[in-house]
What does this fold into?
Amino acid sequence: MTANTDAKQPVMDRALMVVAAVVVLGAIMSILDTTVVNVALNTLARHFHTKLATVQWVATGYTLALATVIPLTGWAADRFGTKRLYLATIALFVTGSALAGLAWSSETIILFRVLQGLGGGMLMPVGMTILTRAAGPQRVGRVMGVIGVPMLIGPILGPILGGWLVQDLSWRWIFFINLPIGIAAFITSTRVLPRDAGQPGVKLDWVGLATLSPSLALIIYGLAESSSHGGFGHAQVLVPIAIGAVLFVAFIAGALKRPAIALIDLRLFKNKVYSGAMATMFLMIIAVFGAMLLIPLYLQSVRGESALTTGLLLAPQGLGAMISMPIGGRLTDRIGIGRFVPAGLALVALTFIPLTQIGAHTSYVLLGIDLFFMGLGIGLAMMPTFSGAIQTLRRADIARASSALNINQQVGASFGTAILSVLLASRLIDHLGHGPGSGIGGTLPAAVRATVAPKMAEAYSAVFVVALVLVIISTLVAALLLPKHKPEPVEDPDAAAVEAPPAVLV
It folds into this structure.
C-alpha cells in the first residue's frame, strides 16, 4: 500500500478499529499483570508459609522473563508472521495464568509466572507491529493512541482490581481473571487479524540472543535490587549491572558486524527521527515512570491508604490520559511531534511543582486535580513519541523497531524507579533515622504514622524535586531532538506487495 493510497483511506475505518480492539485486549492482560500481583504478595507469603523476599520473585521472575523474551520478538515476527506469533503468545500467557492460579507452592507459582512472562513479553511489541502495519504511516498516531490507554490505565487499575480480588474472592483470581480475556482475545484474533506469511529463511542471531537477553535481565535485576539494598554500592547491585553492561556492549559490537540478522537493527538509528524519538522516550520514561512510583507510595505509607483506595485516588490521572491520548494521536498524524510533545512534558513538569510541597495532610481534591492535568500531559507526550519513532520506517523494519522500543521502555522504567527509590530510602533515613517509617512501602500503626507522617512527607517532597528536574531535562531534550514538521513517509517498496487485510468476520 503506498503512502498516497493510504492517505485516501478513512481515518479510522471499522476493520482497523477491530484490529486495534483485539490488540488492546492483549495489552490489557500483559500490563495489568505487572501491577495486579503486587498487592497480593503479602497474602501469597502467608498462604505458602514463606518469606516475603521469596514471594517477591513472583513479581521479579515475571519482569525478568519479559526482559529476556522481548529481544526475540522482531526475529520471531519476521520468521513466523505476526498473526501466528500473536496467537502463540496469547496461548502461552493464558496457560501460564491458569497454572499460576493452580499453584501449590511458592516454587511452582514462581515457575508459572516466568512462563506467563515469556508470553506477556511479546504481547506488546507484536501488537504494536500488527497495529502499525495495519494503519500505515498516515494513521499510526491515532492507533498508537488507542493502545497507549491501557499502558497508562493498567498501573492504576491493577491495584484496584488486585485489591478487590484478594479481599473479596481469592488470590487465585488475580491469575484466573486473565482466562476469559485471553480466550476472547485468541478467538477474535483468529478471525480479524490480517494474514501475513512468515519468512522461513530469516536467520536467528544466536550470538546476539546469548548477549542481549541476559544483559537486559541482569541490568533490570540489579536495578531492582538497588531499592532493597538502599543504594547502588552493594555487590548484589553492582555485579549484575556490570556483567549486564559488558554483555550489552558485546551485543552492540556483534550487531554492527552482522546488521542483516541482528535482533535489533542498529542501522535504524541512522534515521534522525527514530533516534531522536528513542532518546526522548528513554529520558521521558525515566522521569515519568520513576516519579509515578512516588505517588502511590506516598498514599499508602504517609496517608495509610489501602491499595484499593490508592488506585481510586489515582484514577484522575488515567482520566486525563484517556482524554488527551486521542488528541495526541491526531496531532501526530498531522504535524511534527516536536511541536506538541515538549508542551505535554512541560505540563507534566508544572504538575510536579505542587508535589514538591506535598505534606502529611494535603487535600485529596487538590491532588486529584493535579493528577488529572498530569495525565493530560502524559497523554500528549508518551504515545506520540512512540508513534514518531516508527512513522518514517519501512514496513520490513517495524517488527525489530518495536522490539527496540519496548526494550527502551523496560530499561528506562527500571532506571527511573531504581533511582528515585534509592533517593527516597536515603531521604527517609535522613529525616527519621532507622526508626519507624524509614522503610519504603512499610505499613505502620495509625498512632505511629500520625507521629512520623510529617517527616515522611518531607522526604517525599524532597524526592519530587529530583523528579521535577528529570522531567524538565526530558522536556528540553524533546524540544531539541524531535522534528517540528511531520516527516515525509519513506519510500517503501515492500508495502505495495502486501496483501490487503481480509474482510473482518464478526
Observations:
- The longest helix spans residues 446-481.
- The chain is about 75% helix and 0% strand.
- The two ends are 24 Å apart (CA to CA).
